[in-house]
Amino acid sequence: MGFDWLAAGGMCLPVSRTALNILFRVVIVFKSLLFKRCAVSCWRQYRICLNGDLNSAVTLTPITEEFMNFLRTHPEREHFITHFRLWNAGFRTAFVCLRNGRPLCMQWLITAADNESRFRLGVWSSLYLPLSPRTGRLEGFYAFKDTFGNKVATKFTVAMNNKAHSMGLKELVTHVVEENGVVCKWLQKVGWRESGSITCLRLDLPGLRHISICLHENSEQQKVLLSPEREKQHALARGLAVANQ
What we know:
Layout: E1 4-8, E2 11-15, H1 17-33, E3 38-49, E4 60-62, H2 65-72, H3 81-88, E5 94-99, E6 102-110, E7 135-143, H4 152-166, E8 171-177, H5 181-189, E9 193-203, E10 212-218, H6 228-244
Parallel strand pairs: 7-8
Antiparallel strand pairs: 1-2, 1-10, 3-8, 3-9, 4-5, 5-6, 6-7, 9-10
Helix pairs in contact: 1-6
């Protein structure tokens, strides 16, 4: 995806960098005028090329309806909102790592075959751009409490990359909310590179409550670092997002 994008309600439109600059300013104006009725969230995008030659001792088990029923009564179920949302929208390519029947890690692998399912994600649909046949998206990584203190999470990530490569995918993308600096650093440590940002605007107004507007900025489009003006805009957007909390 070598463009910047404007997405709303699952519909996507490529935009120029100039147009994106204007849209960033519009977001800032909306937030300043409708502070209590406007929510802004910021995400970092990451990308990794696949070669499939890394070894992993982790076995992936496809997630089934039976496992989803298990999650609905799990003590950690409050953390599974994204997973239930994806499953209910028809996303079925997901895997879990089990040890003695107990789940350690799980994650969804979204592909071009799921492009139409994006429209069933409601207000979250604009967070996901349509994928090309050779690009996959990892979403909803979760490490259960039994995983803490060991290296299963890293091995699971390698296994997911290998699985994606075996499916014919050449690269993976993902996004992480900016406040989660620990995960952002960990992704870079295991080989992912930052490739852009997503700024989402939600308005608490009649007729617009079920739609989010997302600006997808591809920092690799021009292969240069963000300009000082863009850094300033991102800093302001991050401040607006924090103000929502």
